[in-house]
Amino acid sequence: MAKKYRKIDPRIWNDEKFYSASLSCQHLFLFILTHPQMTPVGAMRTSPGGIEDELDWEQKGFPQPFREAFKEGLQKRFWEYDKTAKFLGVPNFTRYNPPDNPNVLKSWVGCWNDLPECDLKNKLYQRLKELAEGLGEGFYKGFAEGFPQTFGETGAGEGAGSTASAGSAEKAESDPDEPGWLVAGREANPKLSDEQIRGAWGKFKAHKNSRQPNPRFQWLKWIQNEFDGPPPRRRAPGRSTGTKSSDEFWSAFEASREARA
Fold it and tell me: Which residue stretches belong to region Disordered (predicted)?
């Protein structure tokens, strides 16, 4: 189901790519952004011919032919289009229309299943994944709980294309034997030898942190703490630790004894 309300930042008129575009291209972009069939993930199934008919382009006398306006939008990356799958997406759509909470993000899988399978859909999956990671652990968990229903299984027929691609992406994030993780660990703590990194990797795989949301982040934090130790905890200003040094103890003891004398 298409989202009823959309957010369009008024600063779009200050964007050089937008204000330098032709009036026909600007009009077309605003129409796509607010199209009734545009989904919350920023993509829909349509065709240039269908959009042209909806706008009644020729009859309304737009100053530029539709094909030129559509091509201009592609060149400026306002939208992207797969001719075979009839998939049209707006790359920056979710940047200005992020989910309000993790449950909303999880619910997006409903409209996701209605989008045709293609490489552009696979790229959109990665953008949504990065969006969830950037919004925080709760959103990433919502994404992981909702979207594996589509991408966590393998099979033939409808859905197999995105399943294979996104499944590979998930494997790269969570496979304990993924070499890229060892490289990331070496970059996070260059002082360590390969043997030390592999040893830390073995401990991490057996620890519950490896099964937490965003495991790659957990691994990088682990490799830092494994040899450098966790960062020191900050004590609240003016808060006492409850212990005294030896000199402080004996000074207090002598003062107390003199007071009783």
Answer: 151-261
